[in-house]
Design brief:
The chain is an alpha+beta fold and about 60 residues long. It has one domain: Alpha-Beta Plaits. Helices cover about 20% and strands about 15% of the residues. It is built from two helices and four strands; from the N terminus they run βαββαβ. The chain has helices spanning about 15-20, 45-50, and strands at about 5, 25, 30-35, 55. Strand 2 (about 25) and strand 3 (about 30-35) form a beta hairpin. The termini are close together. Bound molecules: iron/sulfur cluster (SF4). Iron/sulfur cluster binds near residues 4, 12, 52 and 53. Iron/sulfur cluster binds near residues 4 and 31.
Length: about 60
């Protein structure tokens, strides 16, 4: 289960750059997990660690 805390996310796009198969920026300017994405991929952890505001919960 991977979640983005939308209140915390600042929409910097780092997670999307690191792991675009799982994350995308929504029309609200916040990252979210893509529908049906395989969240077991390694880059999810990288993205979570790289998020400047720790908005990604793995
Ligand atoms: S890296 Fe963090 S703050 Fe940046 S878009 Fe992703 S979830 Fe939001």
């Amino acid at each position: 289960m991977v979640e983005v805390d939308k209140d915390t996310c600042i929409g910097c796009g780092t997670c999307v750059a690191l792991c675009q198969e799982v994350f995308e920026l929504g029309s609200d300017g916040k990252a979210h997990v893509k529908e049906g994405a395989d969240t077991s991929v390694e880059c999810v952890k990288e993205a979570a660690e790289a998020c400047p505001v720790q908005a990604i919960k793995v």
